[in-house]
Every structure is written in C-alpha cells, then in structure tokens.
Amino acid sequence: MKIVIAKTAGFCMGVRRAVELVLDLPKKYPEPIYTYGPLIHNPQVLALLEEKRIYALKEIPEKGSGTVLIRAHGVPPEVKKRLQASGLVVVDATCPRVIKVQTIIRKYARQGYACIIIGDRDHPEVVGLLGYAGTQGVVAADLKALSDLPRFEQAIVVAQTTQNIELFENAHRWVNEYFPHYKVFNTICDSTENRQTEVSRLAEAVDAVVVVGGKNSGNTQRLLEIAQGKGKTAFHVETEAELDDALVGAQRVGITAGASTPNWVLRRVYRGVQTLPFRKGKGWRRWWFTLERTLLLTSTYLALGAGATCYASARLQNISIHFPHILIAALYVQSMHILNNLIGRKADRYNEPDRASFYDGHKGFLSLLAVLAGGAGLLAAYTLGTLPFLVLFAMSLTGLSYNLNILPAGIGTGKYRRIRDIPGSKTVLIALAWGIVTSVFPALTAGAKFTAGSIAAVAWASGLVFIRTAFFDILDMQGDRIVGKETLPILIGEKKTMNLLKGMLIIIMALLSGSAALRVLTSLGYLLLLPAASLFVVMMTHEKGHMLPGIRLEFLVDTHFIMGGFLAGIWALGTG
Ligand code: SF4
C-alpha cells in the first residue's frame, strides 16, 4: 500500500502559534492560565493542559485572577474588554490573518457599509468578526442564504478564513452579477486554500482519502467534502481507532488533516493505516510486522545495533575483540532504553501510543527484562575487572537517576531538579553513554591504550547516536512540547537541528576518511562511510516528505548501526 500524507496536513501557522504561546505562558505570566474556550478540539490535549493548570474558560468571571489567552479565532472587541476588566491578564493569540479580516470589517462598518460574512454563524471566528461589524454584520452560510439577504446600499463581502474556496468563488460570481456595487474581499487564508487545493489533487491520485480532525471542525469537514466531491471514498476520523477495514484493499491512500490536528494524531493515524494490511493480513507480512515491532519495542534491535557498533569500533581501532565487550554494550543499551521508555510513557501517549500501550500492558515483563539485562551487563563488566565494573555501575546509576529528583525541594529555583530537566541533556547523555560502552570500554579493558584512534572511534559512535536521538526528537516535537520535554529541536528549532545533524554527518564522514588516510583508524573507516552516507540520504528523503515517520523509518535508521558491524565483519574477512 502506498500512503501519501498531504504536505499541508496538520496545525496551521495560527494554531501552532497559539499552542506554543499558551505553553510558554506559565513561565512569564501569573497563574492560573486560561484559554478563552478550548484551545483545540482534542480531548487528550485539553486534559494534559489541565494537568499543567491551563484551563478552558467558559464564562468571563466578574473578578478574575491569572492570565487568559485569546485563541487563534479571535473574539469580539467587547469580549476582550470584558476579559481585561475582570482583572485577568489578557494575551491575544488571534491569528494575524484573522486580524486582517477584523480590520477590513471594522474599517467599512465605520463607514456605514453592511458586512456580509460567508461562513458558519456559530463558528468562534465568525462570532468574533461579527463583533467588529457592530449592527451591520450578517452571515450567509451558502448561496441560498446569500440570495435571501436584503439589498444593501453599500456592502462588503468577506469569507471566514477557513471557508470552502469553491463556495466563496460561486458567491463572488453571484455578487458580481446581481450586486456589482458590493466590494468583495477574498479573505480565505492561504493555508486553507493550499490545504483544499492539495486535497483535491490528492484525491485524484489515490483510491481512498483519510481526513483526520475533530468531528465538529468546519475546515476538516470541508476537506472531506472536497475529497468526496472527486468521487473518492473518504473517511473522516478523529483517531486511529476509527480507521475502517475497507482501507485494507486500497493500493494508494491519501491522508490529510484539519488545521487544528496535532501532528502526533496525524502520525498515529498514518501508523494505523501503514500497519493495517499487516495487522489485518495473514502470512509472512503479518509475521514480519510482528517481528519488526517486537524487536523495536523491546529495544532488542537497538541493542543488536550497540553490539555491532562495539564490534566495528574495535575493528576501527585495530584492537582485539572480546565477546564481553559486545555483550556489555548490547545489554547496557537495552536496559537503559527500556527503563527510559517505561518512565517516558506519558510523552509516548502522544508520540508513540503503540509503544505506550505496549509498555503499559507488559510493565512487569519489561521491568524484569531491564533489570536482568542491566544485571547481566554488570556481571560481564565484572569479569573484565573492577574498573570496568565501577564505570558501568556509575553509568547505570546516572541512567537510573535521569528522571529522579536529585536536588531536594527548596534548593535553587526548583526548575532543574532532575538531569532530564537540563535542556537537551537526553541527546548528549545517550550519545556519551554509547560512546563509552561501545568504544572506550574495549580500548581500556583489552589492555590497549586509549589512543587518538580511540578518540576518533568515540566521536564516530557518539556522533551517530546523537544524530539518531535528535532526529527522532524532531519527529516527536509537538508531543514533547505538550508534555514539557525540552529536547534539542524544541530548544533551537526543527530546521536548525536538521542542519546541525546534516553538518555532523559530513564531519563524521570527513573524520572517518581523514583518520583512515592518516592511519589513526584502520581502512575500515572508508567502508563505514557507507552507513553515514546512507543515513544522510534517509534524512534528506524524510525532509523532502518522501519518507514518513513510522515503524519502517525507525527500523531503517537503527539498521545503520547493524550495517556498521556487518561491514566490519566483511572488512575483517577481507583483510585477514
Ligand atoms: S487557518 Fe489561517 S487564518 Fe485560520 S488560524 Fe490558521 S493560519 Fe490563521
């Protein structure tokens, strides 16, 4: 099955801006924090916002305290005044494109023009716009309602920013024909326009379309109508649980989403569609899917990757291979990743619901697996000597304390009480830990010295793991932001992170080839350019929208670590 996700699917600029603004409010404004009405139509997000003491305000209190955010839809001017008069600090997150429509309406209403809004009367944006029209505002939901309106001496016609383009164009033509003295402003937002144009093209190219978004979201409903208008089977779903089995037979499926659909909901639906043929199908495909999923969810595939990296690192440094080194790397990585996943289930509820429910359902087994893997790793380290055992023990303690309060309450501002509270710490610590277990351990404990080659090998292994972690963090950005994780992409932005990772891959390739040329590393360095270059291509392909987040992408990225070990094996056979 080929799946195409619309490039314009998900949060529009205005909604993203409002969500980011509200999440930043507790740092700068008095609490409690309110949004005037629900911020977006997603019950999970609203529940999580409440956990963060961000509540949806239904009524304006006579006397309020705290801060209230006006949503992207905007409000009538008198509502804003009443909010301010109540004593609440008002932060206005009205979308700039909605403000533009409000400005047009206010200008012409003051000059005595009637203001006709093509839109849904009850939609919050239209309610807000009517407030700017004073007594001269009227709403027409369709052509019939428009033709039923009385004739005005002077009038303007505007559209709700998420209005159906076709409907508005028809209205425009009708007005030109019957009331050419009316002034018409096409105020449909370009985000809406692009989304609708894209779904129209998408529907022509696929067998079925899945539209993701709230059942009461007008712009989502319009996307559905456009897809159906093209004569294609179209499904409107709020979550992946509503996916229809009828999709199993489709060869090409298009997915789009309304302007207030978080990207993790979109990803979950995408994953649901992607895995539908495997989950519902039979034979080797189902078997392969189950294997892939289990290897990833239990971090077994990653552990194999760590073992392979350790082997490749020893070959790179030209030191003898001891099986315990490979075992330690694999067991330590598996143990720490399982523990982190167990602790991080809250964020996974958004980004990786499959993983979250797997960890919820197998909590006992996975905890035991983590403890056994960690214990076996320590035992293997003990067989190598006291120093390796103590180093691994210290690393395990650091890994375990990552999510625990280290500083007691009352010390400092309370903001950085856990290691995970330090922004970007996860990416750096995971990379360092991998570098130590895969490259430093073999160098120190095999009787070899820590050489320039060892430094280059640590930089190679840590660099690749840093790239892997930060790349996955980019995919999880919206969900992480909601749960308050401060990952690297949240700190410096998606684009900068992507550029940083691509730059790092180029440096790693230069390091491998340069060190191999200078004989700091063995000639395996040349061969290991392959996985680095391949990872670069995968990231570029994803960036261009040709490779979507999901089990396959995760499996593919982690395969690069196994590929390194495999190439090292071939190199060892070739060089004797
Ligand atoms: S759809 Fe357009 S106008 Fe409406 S909030 Fe989004 S960006 Fe702003």
| Portion of residues within helices | 55-70%
* Gyration radius, rounded: 28 Å
| Molecules bound to protein | iron/sulfur cluster
- The name of the CATH architecture of the largest domain is Orthogonal Bundle
CATH topology of the largest domain: Farnesyl Diphosphate Synthase
The structural domain count equals 4
Please, could you describe this protein's structure?
With 576 residues, this protein is an alpha/beta fold. It folds into four domains: 13-95, Rossmann fold, CATH 3.40.50.11270; 97-188, 4-hydroxy-3-methylbut-2-enyl diphosphate reductase, catalytic domain (Cobalt-precorrin-4 Transmethylase, domain 1, 3-Layer(aba) Sandwich), CATH 3.40.1010.20; 195-282, 3-Layer(aba) Sandwich (Cobalt-precorrin-4 Transmethylase, domain 1), CATH 3.40.1010; 299-575, Farnesyl Diphosphate Synthase (Orthogonal Bundle), CATH 1.10.600. The protein contains 25 helices and twelve strands. It has helices at 13-28, 43-51, 77-85, 96-110, 124-133, 143-148, 165-178, 190-205, 218-229, 263-280, 284-297, 300-317, 323-343, 345-351, 353-361, 363-384, 386-401, 425-445, 452-475, 477-483, 488-492, 494-517, 524-527, 529-543, 551-575; strands at residues 2-5, 33-36, 54-57, 67-70, 89-92, 114-118, 137-140, 155-159, 183-184, 208-212, 233-237, 252-257. The strands form three sheets. The chain has a four-stranded parallel beta sheet, with helices on both faces. α12 packs antiparallel against α13. The chain is elongated and about 95 Å long. The two termini are 45 Å apart. The model has no long low-confidence stretch (mean pLDDT 89). The protein binds iron/sulfur cluster. Residues 12-15, 72, 95, 97-98, 161-162, 189, 191-192, 259 line the site of iron/sulfur cluster. Iron/sulfur cluster binds at residues 12-15, 72, 95, 97-98, 161-162, 189, 191-192, 259.
